[in-house]
Structure formats: structure tokens, C-alpha cells
Design brief:
- By secondary structure, this protein is of the alpha/beta class.
- 44% of the residues lie in helices and 10% in strands.
- It has 14 helices and 7 strands.
- A 7-stranded parallel sheet has the order 1-2-3-4-5-6-7, sandwiched between helices.
Length: 346
Amino acid sequence: MLDKLGFVPDIDRLLAALDGKKPDRVPNFEIYVAQNIRTALLGYQCPDGIAGEVEFKPKFYYDYLYALTSHQVPPVYSRKDLKAGGNDRAWADVHSAMITDWDSFRSYEYPAPGSLDLSQVRAAVSAAKTIPGKAGVGALMPVAPFTETYLLFGFEEFCLKLHDDPELVKAVADRIGSVGEEGMRQLCRERVDFVVFGDDMAYTEGMMISPELMRKIFLPWHRRFIQVARTAGKRVVFHSDGNVEPVIPDFIEAGLNALHPIEPKAMDIVSLKKTYGKQLAFFGNIDVDLLSRGTPDQVAAQARKLLVSLAPCGGYALGSSNAVADYVNPENYKTMLMTSWEHGGW
């Protein structure tokens, strides 16, 4: 455990990286670490919720606690598209739709703007004060206009409607976006140091829809989320899987602080850093497949390579290329953290 090696949390370290600066050492960053992985590293059962954050994060070189808020637009697979049971995975059926026309758009029960449950956020703010050092708090704003829109249509119907009835698609996106904008305002009134929002909009090979359509229908809401947060004095991290390079300039123009998680199969983080590093921080990039099926030596080599390439310029935090899922090899994850500790300082 890194607290026994002298690590003391300091949120200023992560904030410096978010501002594109060079902190005293490279911070670590994750939006999710599965409970079984935390338990494996701790050597005893890790609690749920904020209690688990307090138990795990300061011991393994994280400068912040991370709080979740309620998911404001219910995932459609929670109603009729559930394909999971036990420990299986869940996904949305691309063929079915909750919204198919203007009548179903009007009858769908959208959540009320301003109804985020902030209990976990407030618990994290209180808990951070009890941790030695200067632990900060990050929080998730869970509304994702692009993802939630295509889930409500079903992806096949969504693609057809983009051609046949783009105004209906925009109407759904606007209803979801209005919930997210007010949710961001709610969240930013709390004593959090940074906010995260995500909207998976790309495959490994490229965007899920054209950048032009993304800019016309969805990116205006992302811009508003960012501007609400920045006006409130909060740093912002945006998460999307896949190759989002075509719209990186749009996010920079909106005022985004950091992009996460930079999948190595989708984008070259060193190239991105050279092109956009003075305007945007980049977080992540350790391949989840490597963390799952690679060896500790391979993980250590990749982590060292990233630290050597990216750390000297600042604006970088080490982490996985998505999240530390329950199928990740705990020893590989521990190796990533130890490599960061041993090679991430100056």
C-alpha cells in the first residue's frame, strides 16, 4: 500500500494536470475500479460507496474521492431490453425502441431537471476532510445526450431517424440535454474540485455518426455542460471511448480541461499530446486488455513508456484506457500503480 511508502493525497497535483501544468509527480486517474479488484489489493473486503473510496483511494496513490450521482435518464435496457442474469453482462437491444415517433416522444416520462441525488457527493466532501493530506473530490454528472438518445430509439432506428426525421432526434437530444444542463448546475454548487461527464460517441475506427451531425445535434449540449462547470470554477473531464479526434478541437473551444481515456487502439496519445497538449490534458491510455491478459512486466513497460513520453510536459494522468473492470488482473493493476509511484516523480 502506497500510503506506507510515503504517499500523501494532494488534490493540487491532479488540478495542476487538469490545467495542463506539470505537478510534483504524475497523478493517477480512474473513473471506476471494481470492488473485487479493490478487495484483492487491500487484502480484505472493500466496502461499498464512499466508505470504499476512503478505504482504497488514499492507500493506492489517488488524490481524490470519486462520487456518483443518480442516472437521470433511465437506461432502456432496465425496462425491456435486459439480456443479463447473475454475473452476465447487460446491453441494449439495437432493434427495439422506446421512442419511434412524435407521439412516443411526447408520452415518454423524462426525469425532471434538477433532480440529481447528491447524497454521495456530500458524503465524499465530508469524508475527504478526514483523510490526512489534501484529498479532493470529483463527481460524475451522469447525463449523456448522444448515448441516451440512441438508446431510447435503439441504434438501428436512431440511424434511420437521423435520415428520415432528424428533428425528432434533435427533440429527444434536447430533452435529455436540458436535464443534463440543470444537473451540471446542481453538481457545481457542491464543494467538488472537478466534474466528469461521459458520452461514448466513437468506435475504435472513428465516430459513430458524422462529426457534422454530432456538431449539429449533440455537441451544443456538451459545450453547455462544460461552460456551466467552467463558469462555476470547476475543472471538467470528458470521457468517451473510441476515436474522437475529429471533434477534439470542438471540445477545446468549449473549454474542456481533460479528455479520457484515450484508447491506444483508437488514438495515438503521443501524437495527440504533440498536437493539442498546450490546450488539453490527456488522461489514461493503459490498455484494459493488457491489464487483463498481459503480464506485470508488460504493464510496467507500457506505464514507463507513457511516463517518459508524456510526463515531462505536464497535463497527463496515468490510468486505464477505460476503467478497471472486474475481469482485470489485480496484479497487473497493482503493477501499474507501483510503476507510477516509482517512475512518476521528478
